[in-house]
Amino acid sequence: MSERKRIFIVVKTYPTISKEYSELVCTAGILEDGSWIRLYPIPFRKLDLEQKYPKYTWIEVEVDRNTKDFRPETYRPVLETLVIQDHAKEWEERRNIIFSNKKIYTNMQELISKAKTEKKSLAVFKPTKIHDFIYKEVDREWDKGKLSILKGLSKQMNFFQTPEEIADEFKTVRKVPYEFSYVFEDDSGHKSTLMIEDWELGMLYFNCLQNANEVESVALSKVKDKFLTYFNTRDLYFFLGTTKQYHNVARNPFIIIGVFYPPILQEDNQIRLF
Q: How far is CA 128 from CA 97, 185, 224, in A?
């Protein structure tokens, strides 16, 4: 049975292509009691304009527990019930909501143990040191098998849609041809390298690419400058999440699904480059 929940959105991952659900965005947020919730699946670009929520916004939506996902935080939204409410513009307000009634992890092994023993799949993590921000080239095109399924779906004509509207509905998002990762240390001195799947990062890359006249090396340099140099002047936190596929099998099942970078409140909170 569906229940209506009020959710503060803190994570939107870059869109991926799914054989089952077409083009998807994984969204994570915080409930009024401070607990985590994951909304999946959400075909974000197909939402009505008035439903396209930005980060740090309260929404209300009816949800059902997604029984296909063993991770307890995952719920399936009833999209037609989604309503956008207030947007938190100030960093202080965002801090208060995000850190309310919630543990801020600083030890990677502690969090991994929670994932294995308690199925914990979402967390706020504070790195002790940032060593680097790295990137590597990956496939430039989406999987052809998944794209063929989308093309098949687009041919299933809806009586109330024009061919142009159907083609636009199943138009795929541009694939980011690089994989970005942070190299960081936790409070035990253990070093980790975790991939970043934040919507903000993907959009930043393409904006930088456009401003650099499609010169990728310049765009990559600008992205690194923001995520490494600029964020080192802020109070940096990671939103970490597991993937369903690797939660129970990977040594470290977490990836960075978002970053939170409010201004530094105290000098001793600053993350220093090693």
A: 22, 6, 19
